[in-house]
Write a structure and sequence with these properties.
The complex is a heterodimer.
Chain A (H helix, E strand, L loop, with lengths): L2 H17 L1 H21 L4 H34 L1 H6 L5 H30 L8 H23 L5 H11 L1 H6 L11 H8 L2 H14 L4 H24 L6
Chain B lengths: L5 E10 L2 E11 L4 E5 L6 H9 L6 E6 L2 E2 L9 E4 L11 H12 L4 H9 L15 H13 L5 E5 L7 H16 L3 E6 L10 E6 L2 E6 L1 H8 L4 H15 L1
Parallel strand pairs in B: 3-8, 3-9, 6-7, 7-8
Antiparallel strand pairs in B: 1-2, 1-4, 4-5, 9-10
The chains are: A mainly alpha, B alpha/beta.
The structure holds adenosine-5'-triphosphate (ATP) and magnesium ion.
Adenosine-5'-triphosphate (ATP) binds next to helix 1 of chain B.
Chain lengths: 244, 240
């Protein structure tokens, strides 16, 4: 890996995001709008918003980054720019980590806005430190990016890449403990949810709303980060310099 | 002593279950412009991909400057233009070049030079997505010029360009070769043949002629490369 190249990739991706106003707006405004929608739905019963809100704060960056990353990297594969980069002195990890950094930055801004809105205006009740909520969200976003990078290796068109979303993401949403607490699910499903990264992200968010103790939260963040690193590693392994 | 820029031996490549390159061998020296001509689908792009080390080989060897194609040490010495313009549509020409310059570790000053070389200065700050097809492929070509590569591998860089611009670019290729680099250019337009120092004619994954354009015409007793190509194809048909 070479920091100069990694950084070049990250800044280039950020320039592209900034250039595309519609995507930039979607990335930053959409989570806020959705949180507001959720708050409005449960206007009468603030307790439900307090229970679901944190889980959604974990989910948005994950889903959005998964989609954005799998489609952008696929575009990079099909446009020939990836082939050109791999013929240059570009390490595979430079490419992947560069992307992860760029989308991590986007996620930081995105979740800072969503968290500020939820806690400041929508009265989301958080016992733990608010900034830690943002840290969890960033870890989630990097995880989403890493998984998106990984699955884009298995798609040959953008259309296929989008199809991975229901396959990879929806089961995690269903099993992460937001709808049914994980310990109340059938044993098999509970075991499955134990190996899905989003479960840990949701756990972290829910712990933050319940208690001010942060030990468990950091443990969950570490698990999420480990999943992200593993996905990046797999992504690097599936990224081939020589193709058939 | 000077090593050959490119050495290919017994190269076989299968793609999608078909033998696309069939036992190809040749060398390219520095300081010349070599053209690779052949009909669509004959394997030109596959051969170029093999030279820059992004194509999976079935058997045989491809070396550049004495090292295995695609070796790390080679990657900053080879400029490669893919057939489709491989630049980012949502960045300006300058932004694209700045990015690739950083990847290559090349001085930013070279960016303006490369833009001038492909005559895009008037569009330097236009987003690539808003350029015409020919302008876009010139932007892609400019990227390959960064860092004074010792080997330029150009896959149909002049497609869709007007005659004046095409002449200018061929002059540029010769200037680059005169500096000591090896330039390898593919085309499927036969009338570009005369601009090459050396010409390789390819058909169905086999090189059917490899000489100066003039001598190819002499040997086949024809006046232009298109007729020479036809004569060679028909000659091969007679033998089999
Ligand atoms: N990605 C691929 N997978 C499988 N087969 C491929 C692939 N790309 C090309 N081929 C096959 O390899 C053969 C040679 O293709 P190649 O792109 O090298 O031709 P070419 O000479 O560059 O043609 P053109 O002048 O149209 O660019 C073709 O028959 C094509 O069907
Ligand atoms: Mg081709």
């Amino acid at each position: 890996m070479n920091p100069r190249i990694t950084f070049a990739v990250a800044t280039r991706v950020l320039t592209q995001v900034r250039r595309d106003h519609r995507t930039a707006a979607m990335l930053l405004v959409l989570p806020c709008l959705l949180m507001t929608l959720l708050w409005w739905m449960f206007e009468e019963s603030g307790a439900v918003f307090d229970r679901l809100g944190p889980g959604l704060l974990a989910m948005f960056p994950f889903i959005i980054m998964f989609l954005v990353t799998s489609v952008t990297t696929l575009r990079e594969r099909s446009s020939g720019t990836l082939e050109r980069l791999l013929a240059m002195p570009m390490g595979k990890l430079d490419f992947l980590v560069g992307y992860a950094i760029a989308f991590g930055v986007v996620a930081a801004v995105q979740s800072a806005l969503a968290v500020a809105l939820s806690v400041g205006l929508l009265d989301l009740d958080v016992q733990g430190p608010v900034w830690l909520l943002t840290v969890v969200a960033i870890a989630d976003a990097v995880l989403g990016s890493a998984l998106g990078l990984f699955v884009s290796a298995f798609a040959t068109t953008e259309f296929q890449a989008v199809q991975f979303m229901p396959a990879f993401v929806v089961p995690q949403i269903l099993l992460c403990g937001l709808f049914v607490p994980r310990d109340q699910m059938p044993t098999v499903l509970e075991k499955i949810s134990d190996v899905l990264p989003l479960s840990y992200a949701t756990d972290a968010m829910q712990t933050l709303t319940r208690t001010a103790a942060t030990g468990d939260v950091w443990q969950d963040v570490l698990v999420v980060a480990a999943f992200a690193i593993a996905a990046l590693g797999l992504g690097a392994a599936t990224l081939r310099r020589r193709t058939p | 002593m000077m090593k050959n820029a490119v050495e290919v031996a017994d190269l076989v490549v299968r793609r999608g279950g078909r033998e696309v390159l069939r036992s190809i061998g040749f060398t390219i020296e520095r300081g010349s412009v070599t053209g690779l001509l052949g009909p669509s689908g004959c394997g030109k792009s596959t051969l170029m991909r093999s030279l820059v080390g992004v194509q999976q080989l079935t058997s045989g060897t491809v070396k550049a400057f004495g090292e295995e194609a695609g070796a790390k040490a080679l990657r900053s010495r080879i400029g490669y233009v893919t057939q489709a313009a491989s630049v980012y549509d949502d960045l300006t020409v300058t932004e694209n070049l700045n990015f690739f310059a950083k990847v290559l570790g090349v001085n930013k000053g070279e960016v303006a030079e490369a833009i001038d070389a492909v005559d895009l200065r008037s569009h330097a700050d236009v987003v690539v997505g808003q350029l015409s097809g020919g302008q876009r492929s010139r932007a892609s070509l400019a990227v390959a010029l960064l860092g004074d590569p010792d080997l330029l591998v150009l896959d149909e860089p002049t497609v869709g360009l007007d005659p004046v611009l095409r002449r200018d670019l061929w002059e540029l290729f010769h200037r680059i070769a005169a500096r000591g680099a090896a330039v390898f250019v593919s085309s499927h337009v036969m009338d570009e043949a005369d601009r090459c120092d050396r010409l390789m004619l390819m058909r169905d994954g086999v090189i059917i002629a490899d000489d100066t354009p003039l001598r190819i015409c002499e040997k086949t007793r024809t006046d232009d490369i298109e007729s020479a190509f036809l004569a060679l194809v028909e000659g091969a048909g007679d033998q089999s």
